[in-house]
Amino acid sequence: MADSFIQTELHELRKEYQKELPGSELIACHPVSVRVKMTKTEYRQFDVCLQFPEGYPNTSIVVELKSKTIPEKLRDGLTKVCDTETKKLCGKPQLLPVLRLLKQFLDDNPFAICSEELSFIKKELITEKDQIKVKQKSGSISMTIYQDNYYFSFKMIVPEEYPAKQVCIQKVDDNFPKLFSTVFFNQAIEMARQCVEPPLKKKPKDAPFEPKPSLKLIAKFLVEDCIRRYPRDPCQICKDNAFPPDPKSVVTVPSNDRYIERVYCCHLFHHGCLDTFMKTPPFTGGKKCPGCKQRIYHDKWNITPRLAEERWAHQEAKRRELAEVVDFLE
Ligand SMILES: [Zn+2]
Ligand SMILES: [Zn+2]
C-alpha cells in the first residue's frame, strides 16, 4: 500500500513539476529518493533531497537542502519549517506540497542569499533607539540610525541577481551637515560598485575577480564609520567635538572658525583651528594630521611648504611691526 502511494506521488511529480515548479530540474525521482534542483538566480538556488521514511505517509517525508550559496543556518531553519508542515500532512501526499513550499520561499525571499549579512545588521549594528524595517517581497531594508542628536535614514535594496549585482543604496533623510551626508553616500555607492566590478588596473598576481557581497559591508560602513563616528569625532587640534551638539547650529559658512573641515585622512578640524595650524611652522615635509600623521591635502590650503614658510615669515614680520607700533604708542 505504501509503495503504490509513493508511486502515485512520484507519477504526479513527473507530470506536474514543470508547471508547478518552473525553473526546477528533476534530477532523480525514485521511491528511494527524490532530488530537485531549484534555481531562482545563479546564487539563489538549492538542491532538495527528499526521502520517504518507514511508515510513509503516516510519517514525515525527510527533507535535506544542499546549497553552496545559501547559508547553512537558513537551510536548517527552512528544513524545520518543512517538518512542521509535513506533520500537518500526516497520512496525505507530502511530496509536492513540500516542494511547492520551498519553491515559494526561494521566489519570495531575496534575503535567502544574504540571511547572515542581514542578521549581522540586526544584531551588531542596530540599537534599541534605531529603526529597521525589512520588506521581504521587495528585498528592501530601511534603517534610521540615531546618534546623539543626529539621525540618518537610508534604504538598501537587494537585487534579484545579488551578489553578482551590488545592493542599491538610497538616501532617505538626515540632519547631518549636507557635505557629510553627500560624502557618506557617494563613498558607500563607490564601495558597493567595487564589490561587483573588477578594478580597471589589474595586477598580474591578482586572482580572477569574483563579485563580493556588499550588504553587510555597506551597512557597517555607513553605520559605524560614518553615522556613529562623526557626531563624536574631535577636532584634531582643540579636541572639542567638531560637530556641535545641536544639529541646528552646524555652521554653513566655510570661512567661519567653527565650520567643520574633513581632510583626506577623514579626520575632522574646525576651520579656524586648521587654518592656524596650516599657517604655523614647521612646514618641512608638509603639514601632517595630528591624529594619524598623514599628510594633509586640502584645496583651501593647497600650497607648497616653501610658500607657507614665506607667508608665515611675512605675517610674523607684520605682527612684529604692529607690536612695535603698539610699543611705541604705549
Ligand atoms: Zn578645533
Ligand atoms: Zn588624520
UniProtKB/TrEMBL annotation:
Superkingdom as given in the UniProt entry: Eukaryota
Residue span, RWD domain: 8-109
Residue ranges of the TM segments: none
Record's keyword terms, sorted: Metal-binding, Zinc, Zinc-finger
The protein's name: Uncharacterized protein LOC100372397
Domain RING-type: 235-293
Keyword Zinc-finger on entry: yes
Positions in coiled-coil regions: none
Pfam family, one: RWD
Native species: Saccoglossus kowalevskii (Acorn worm)
Name of the encoding gene: LOC100372397
